[in-house]
């Protein structure tokens, strides 16, 4: 249904469907943000509650006292792996 909107505009108004879908992505993000703020925020609060805020189950362990240490390391390893894959594989040209 969401993809029908750019198709109709392309068929009737000859718009660029790539640009139109990129703009619709922004609209979709704003709609989801509105839905989260409207339905998930407790009354009188400006923040969305964190599930399991009291415990640390499901969180990465801290390294050197820094809460985000392991997250950054995992992202750097994935980034390095993608760089090597794109640089030296046939799929990366």
Summarize the model shown:
The protein folds into 2 domains: 1-43, no CATH class; 60-93, no CATH class. It is 58% helix and 0% strand. It contains 3 helices and no strands.
Average residue pLDDT: 85
Strand element count? 0
Distance between the termini: 35 Å
Beta content comes to under 5%
> What is the N-to-C order of secondary-structure elements (H for helix, E for strand)?
HHH
Question: How many domains?
Answer: 2
Helix content: 55-70%
State the secondary-structure class. Answer: mainly alpha
Q: Count of helical segments?
A: 3
Task: Return residue spans where pLDDT drops below 50 for at least 5 consecutive residues.
Answer: none
Keywords: Membrane, Transmembrane, Transmembrane helix
Transmembrane segments: 19-39, 59-85
Q: How is this structure best described in words?
A:
The protein is built from three helices and no strands. The radius of gyration is 21 Å and the shape is flat. The protein folds into two domains: 1-43, no CATH class; 60-93, no CATH class. The protein has helices spanning 4-13, 17-40, 69-88. Helix 1 packs antiparallel against helix 2 (17-40). Helix content is 58%, strand content 0%. It is mainly α and 93 residues long. The mean pLDDT is 85.
